[in-house]
Write a structure and sequence with these properties.
This protein is mainly alpha-helical and about 375 residues long. The chain contains 14 helices and no strands.
């Protein structure tokens, strides 16, 4: 995330829309594959789903390795970057959905919020570490070095996951996709709107810093990831105690404040603080809304529900890159953070409506009604 936008825009010479699309391309693949990943985890098992995802992530790294040799062919290099991102999208979809279901199967559905929180701690902790590490690698060994490290990390993931046993696949009749979608749609829309802030920071923070001639943009991404992880470590239990909707309302308010800080930032310290606040606020939105979404289906459909729910975040990330790139082209960089804050505010309103509406009776009642 800290490397590709600057490679596409500053080195290869393409516009900011394509620079944003270089990040968003991954999420085009994930939004298409999330439902299938959930079905796969429900039918053949979470372990096989995770292992398949890790293989795809390694293949993405191989493509990125060859991108490093195509600098003299900008269009060819950009095309292979997109291929790499699309493959990574499929791999990330299988890996993230499968690992959550794998964890829930090992510790029990009553710990769903904790499993989702720890999954996010690991993934966004990777963002916090990977942003400055990626910049250091590309300076030392170029884009090919980033690809090689990606392959190595995928192999390490395979070695870690392989010895862990499979969990039982729940028995029962799977719900039709349209029924799963109808259950989680409002939760997913709220998540999609909230994810706009993360997509904006991931796609354009580096270019925003470069435009302002500020150093150390990668550490702004690190502050986002570090604050994200810190919030989950400190307040991950809050969902079980206060409920998903209440936690989401508080977190969205903090996220909005962070994005407003970024909009108004005139020195790097304010931007750094805004990124940290945004990460801190966004941290628990996914598990808080995810717990409420998964409660709407029966146990044998948890993977499908989680996959469909997560697809809304992927859809948001896929749209955000090119959309925000258009805003940059027309209005400059600062307004993109105001736009993201407004989207988070709409998410806050939708979550408040969900919180106040009558609760669903139970997943079994849905099954009987269908």
């Amino acid at each position: 995330m800290a490397v590709l936008p600057s490679v596409v825009h500053l080195q290869l010479g393409f516009n900011t829309v394509l620079a944003g699309l270089a990040i968003s391309a991954q999420y085009v693949a994930t939004v298409l594959s999330r439902p299938q990943a959930g079905r796969m985890a429900d039918s053949v098992g979470a372990r096989r789903t995770v292992l398949s995802g890790l293989v795809a992530c390694g293949a993405s790294g191989i493509c990125l390795f060859f991108c490093g040799f195509l600098g003299f062919l900008p269009l060819g290099c950009l095309s292979l970057i997109f291929v790499s991102r699309l493959i990574l999208g499929f791999g990330e979809s299988w890996l993230a959905t499968g690992s959550c279901l794998w964890g829930i199967g090992r510790v029990g559905q009553e710990h769903t919020a904790k499993v989702i929180s720890w999954s996010g701690i690991c993934s966004y902790g990777g963002i916090a570490i990977g942003a400055p590490l990626g910049v250091w690698i590309v300076r030392a060994w170029g884009l090919s070095g980033v690809g090689l490290v990606s392959v190595g990390i995928s192999c390490l993931g395979l070695l870690t996951a392989w010895p862990i046993g499979e969990v039982a696949v729940p028995e029962g009749e799977p719900m039709a996709f349209r029924h799963v979608l109808s259950r989680v749609f409002p939760h997913g829309m709220s998540l999609a709107l909230a994810t706009t802030g993360f997509g904006t920071i991931a796609s354009f923070m580096v270019l925003f810093y470069a435009h302002r001639h500020w150093p150390d943009a990668a550490f702004a991404l690190t502050s986002f990831g570090a604050a994200f992880v810190t919030a989950r470590l400190l307040f991950g239990h809050a969902i079980d105690r206060w409920g998903g909707f209440r936690v989401a309302l508080v977190c969205l308010s903090v996220e909005i404040a962070g994005l407003v800080f970024l909009w108004l930032a005139y020195v790097p310290a304010l931007a750094f603080t805004g990124a940290a606040l945004t990460g801190f606020g966004f941290s628990l939105v996914f598990p808080a809304l995810g717990v409420e979404a998964v409660r709407c289906v029966t146990p044998e459909n948890r993977g499908s529900a989680l996959g469909v729910f997560t697809a809304f975040a992927d859809l948001s990330l896929g749209i955000t890159g090119p959309l925000v790139g258009l805003i940059v082209a027309g209005l400059g960089y600062a307004p993109i953070f105001l736009f993201a804050a407004l989207m988070a505010a709409v998410s806050l309103g939708l979550t408040l409506v969900l919180h106040r509406r009558p609760a669903y009776a139970s997943p079994m009642d849905f099954a009987a009604a269908d």
